[in-house]
Amino acid sequence: MGKVITFGQLSRGRTAPVWIAAAALCLSLASGCTEAGEPGGRPDAGAAADGNRPDTTAPSPAESLNDGQVEAERVKDLVSERLDVHLATYGEGTTSPCRPNAAELFTETCLDAARSIGSVARTALDEIDGDKGFATLRRVSQATADASRGYTESGCSANPQDASVRQRCVSHGASLSQAPADLRDGLRLGLAGQ
Length: 194
Known about the structure:
Elements: H1 7-11, H2 16-28, H3 61-64, H4 67-90, H5 108-128, H6 135-153, H7 163-191
Helix pairs in contact: 4-5, 4-7, 5-6, 5-7, 6-7
C-alpha cells in the first residue's frame, strides 16, 4: 500500500481550502487516514468488505433538475436577458418614463418604453405557451402586453386632451412602469413551479 496521509500532518499551519482538499484526497485513498496522525488508517465505514468504495459522486446540477425546472431556467434566462436590456434603457418604477407623474408619459419616449416592455412580455408568453407551472408569469405577462397595447391604441404618446383617454393612459403607464418588477416576480415564481 502507499503512504498513509494523516489529518494531523495536513492540518498544522494549513488553510481551510488545503485541509479540505487533503481530506478529499484521504477519502480517495484505499488506506484511509487517521485523525491522530498515526499510520495505518482504516477504510471508512461505508466501504464494502471487498475493498470497493461506494460511489460518492454527486449528480451535476443539470442532472438533478427535472424537466419542469430545466424549462423554467431556460425561460428565466431568455426573458431576464431581454428584461435587463429594457431596464438599462428605460428603467422601472420611479425611473420609468411611463410612471403616472412622468413628464414623458404622453410622449414618444414612453411609447418606446411601452413597446419594449410589451415585447419582453410577449416573449415570455410565447415561451410558456401551453406549459404548466408559469401561472404568475403568464398573468403578469398578459397584463403587461395588454397595457402596452392599450397605451399604443389609445394614442397616449400624442398627448390626448380628452380626460377619459388621459386617465386610461395614466393607468396603462402605471402598469408599464411596474411591469419589470412584476415580470421578475413571475420568473422567480416560475422557478418554484407557480
